[in-house]
UniProtKB/TrEMBL annotation:
Pfam families: Methyltransf_23. Gene3D superfamilies: Vaccinia Virus protein VP39 (3.40.50.150). The chain crosses the membrane at residues 309-328. Keywords: Membrane, Methyltransferase, Transferase, Transmembrane, Transmembrane helix. GO terms for molecular function: methyltransferase activity. It comes from Catenulispora pinistramenti. This is Class I SAM-dependent methyltransferase. The keyword Methyltransferase applies. The keyword Cytoplasm does not apply. GO terms for biological process: methylation.
Length: 353
């Protein structure tokens, strides 16, 4: 028997009520006084925001290190906090919507794979870390048809990807823990928008070095907080993605760390990885912020009819602004993105020496 979304939300509400009865303070670790990247104590607040996507309760702060430029969530979510805020985003209530979004980005995934093409012909094996539902691996076969793709994710997405045939094998768990079991196995390891989610990005890079055979390649793509959009749009800049994104690594810091681990950076791209969603997402955050809250299990009760009707009316009224923002995102010339530093991501290709 098919369960309606309203019934599914109602069934999850008691668990969320239990999780929230003592507030959300327990979901945060103690506040750090030094930078997790370089150890400097010269910190300054960069951003203070709430959860603009799911609207789960809580306030989140990002600090910037004045010494190395690293930006990080402070205080950081605890393991219990990560579970709470990730729940029903990529899986559960959010599985269908997130799967549809990722499935519709094949052209972007192919371009990510093509970034490796100038450096190697047909790698034998490729591990995509943070693979989600494996849609990148499925699209990348158009570029590397003879490569065997595996995927790893800490959710059940990798297992779903294996069952769907998008990856040869799906690992569920921590890359740091899995890496020793696959040491020297892979010709390529990719981390597309993964490091910003990791608790200790330095350990993830060490794990990549362990998993990649000598002469193999590491592909990394992360949000670029140096983007001018991050300042112009403030907390409504989508790549902040609080509370999920824990770290924002300046490209200089990443290059230096990769060099220390025995990698040579063979390509660095800034304009190419730009995802044309900044203005659309910021406009949506404005519209969504004006409208009454949508139904969710972490709300104490279902919104009444008046609130539901008002929300629908506000969203409909916002459609022209959303359409205009979409057009502006799409028509922005690549040369303008490059000239004014608007790209919201950067990509690095590194060879293990």
């Amino acid at each position: 028997m098919r369960v309606s979304r309203t019934e599914e939300i109602a069934s999850r509400r008691p668990a969320y009520e239990a999780d929230l009865k003592d507030g959300v303070d327990r979901y945060f670790e103690p506040r750090r006084t030094i930078c997790p990247w370089c150890g400097s104590d010269r910190l300054r607040e960069r951003l203070h925001t709430t959860d603009l996507l799911q609207h789960k309760p809580g306030h989140f702060r990002l600090d910037r290190c004045l010494e190395c430029g690293h930006i990080f969530q402070n205080p950081r979510l605890s393991p219990e906090g990560l579970e709470f805020y990730y729940r029903d985003f990529y899986d559960g209530l959010g599985e269908k919507s997130s799967g549809s979004i990722f499935a519709g980005r094949s052209a972007i995934y192919r371009k990510r794979a093509e970034a490796l093409a100038p450096h190697t012909d047909q790698p034998g094996s490729w591990l995509d870390v943070g693979t989600g539902h494996g849609h990148f691996c499925e699209a990348a076969r158009a570029v590397f048809p003879h490569t065997e793709f595996d995927g790893l994710d800490f959710t059940d997405g990798a297992e779903l990807a294996e069952r769907a045939g998008r990856v040869r094998r799906g690992y569920r768990g921590s890359f740091v823990q899995v890496a020793p079991t696959v040491a020297g196995t892979y010709d390529v390891v990719s981390m597309f928008h993964y490091l910003e989610h990791s608790v200790e990005p330095g350990l993830e890079l060490e794990a990549a070095r362990l998993a990649i055979r000598p002469g193999g390649y590491l592909l990394i793509e992360v949000p670029d907080a140096a983007s001018r959009y991050s300042r112009l749009l403030g907390r409504r800049w989508l790549p902040w993605l609080q509370p999920q994104h824990l770290h924002f690594i300046p490209v200089r810091n990443l290059r230096e760390r990769l060099g220390a681990l025995g990698f040579t950076v063979v390509a660095e791209q800034h304009t190419e990885p730009h995802d044309r969603v900044d203005l659309l997402a910021a406009t949506w955050f404005v519209v969504d912020g004006i409208a009454p809250r949508d139904e969710a299990p972490w709300l104490p009760r279902r919104p009444g009819r008046l609130k539901r009707v008002t929300r629908a009316a506000v969203v409909i009224a916002g459609i022209p602004a959303l359409a205009a923002a979409t057009v502006l995102d799409r028509i922005m010339p690549r040369a303008l993105i490059r000239r004014f530093g608007l790209s919201n991501a950067y990509r690095v290709v590194a060879r293990r020496d």
